[in-house]
Write a structure and sequence with these properties.
single chain, Rossmann fold, five-stranded parallel β-sheet, 19 strands
């Protein structure tokens, strides 16, 4: 998960160092935004060393990235610890005079403020009113602990211990966690607990996404309705699970954005280009997820000049030839050479017909292709393609069924990102069931 950790200018800033370490060790990406004055307590070098991320304090640093907007947009949660009386007042007033307050103002992510100040400041009517207003706005403000403060003073206003703050962060993030992190429940594959480590850490996952275009002439092509949204969601889910991810990106409605930072993107357009990229990228991959909508056919001949209408109103005859079956080829290569992805996941976009249901067609495709898992999408006009929601069934080969002790297809209906988590979790469970050398 992506967490922004704001640090304001209080002596308790030293405790935020341990909090940052706890969050990063838990697998979160932590972007730390100190206020300029807080650097008097803990320096920039410490924050960058703990988080492994660049640290800035001003909206005029990293202007090309528009950090004060981007950080807030990408965050799953913003935490400020310590939050001083001054910062609480500035947040309440809607001020944006440094990177931290600008990020808070520009973000719709949940926010957790953890105050730390002297008892008299915490009990001051102005501070009490600020906290009350912030809570009314839906911002969570933790109660400070009571204990030793700066100097000889003691009382309420002490920053809670980092472990207590971390426990509350875990509770707030639970509804927003990727699907692979959910607790096991019936009817769905789940990855085993890897001693707190992301389940795909150290593994390479290749995801194909989008549609292909097969050119007819310099201006026309054969294509399909694939938006690429599901493939992007799969890449995000695999990355969140700790994998090294390569996204082979066909033609998509949207380009991969900053949320895929750290994912290698290989652009392709035709089925032949996709075939070549899959051959190269899967040589050392552990998992292949073939979510791209690959054209089954391409024009036999490419016209070097635009095909023109003729005076006799005759329509041109376009001869089609089959494109390579990339999924079946990858399965066959693995069987013949013993190399390639240990887990191969195919996708089936089926409409069904008057005689055959989509699930039956998917079962036939699974047997024909020989992949380990097959994800069925029932498609059609205004159905799945380009939509935010989806409905999937995940079918397993006989070998995979035995390894997973699962003889019924997994069914999920809902958002595409959640569906991606279910798919990645299924692939992870199967990969985990294989011998360690795989």
């Amino acid at each position: 998960m992506r967490i922004v950790l704001g640090v304001s200018a209080g002596i308790a800033a030293y405790k935020a160092v341990l909090l940052a370490r706890l969050l990063t060790e838990d697998g979160h990406q932590v972007d730390i935004i100190p206020t300029p004055a807080s650097l008097e307590f803990v320096g920039r070098a410490t924050w960058e060393a703990i988080s492994g991320r660049p640290v800035t304090t001003s909206v005029f640093e990293g202007v090309d990235e528009v950090r004060h907007v981007r950080l807030g947009q990408e965050a799953d949660l913003i935490v400020v610890a310590p939050a001083t009386a001054d910062l609480l007042a500035r947040i309440r007033a809607g001020m944006a005079n440094d990177l931290l307050t600008s990020t808070l103002l520009a973000s719709e992510a949940p926010k957790l403020l953890v105050p730390a100040m002297h008892t008299e400041m915490w009990r001051n009517p102005a501070a009490e009113e600020n906290v009350s207003v912030l809570r009314e706005r839906g911002i969570e403000v933790m109660e400070p602990a009571s204990g030793r403060l700066t100097g000889k003073d003691s009382g309420p206003g002490r920053l809670p211990e980092p472990e207590q703050i971390k426990a509350r962060i875990d509770q707030l993030l639970e509804p927003r966690r990727p699907a692979y992190a959910d607790a096991p429940r019936a009817g769905t594959f789940y990855a085993p607990d890897h001693a707190g480590q992301p389940p795909l850490l150290g593994r390479k996952v290749v995801v194909t996404a989008g549609g292909t275009r097969e050119p007819l002439d310099p201006v026309r092509y054969l294509g399909n309705r694939s938006s690429g949204k599901q493939g992007l969601a799969l890449a995000r889910a695999a990355r969140a699970a700790g994998a090294e991810v390569t996204l082979i990106a066909g033609v998509m409605d949207q380009a991969p954005g900053p949320e895929l930072r750290g994912v290698e993107v290989v652009p392709v357009e035709t089925a032949a280009e996709l075939q070549g990229a899959v051959r190269i990228e899967t040589e050392k991959a552990h998992v292949l997820i073939m979510a791209a909508a690959v054209a089954d056919f391409r024009p036999a001949d490419y016209a070097a000049a635009k095909i023109k209408k003729t005076d006799d109103d005759a329509a041109p005859t376009i001869t089609l030839v089959r494109n390579p079956d990339i999924l079946a080829e990858t399965v066959q290569r693995r069987a013949q050479t013993g190399t390639g992805p240990a887990v191969i996941v195919g996708f089936a976009a089926e409409t069904g017909d008057e005689n055959t249901e989509p699930l039956q067609l998917a079962q036939q495709k699974l047997a024909r292709k020989g992949c380990d898992l097959l994800v069925l999408n029932r498609v059609g006009e205004n159905l799945v393609f380009g939509q935010e929601d989806t409905e999937i069934h995940i079918l397993a080969s006989e070998t995979a069924q035995s390894a997973l002790d699962q003889d019924q297809p997994v069914h999920f209906a809902g958002g595409k990102q959640e569906a991606a988590g279910v798919v990645v979790r299924s692939a992870t469970a199967l990969l985990s069931s294989l011998p360690p050398s795989t």
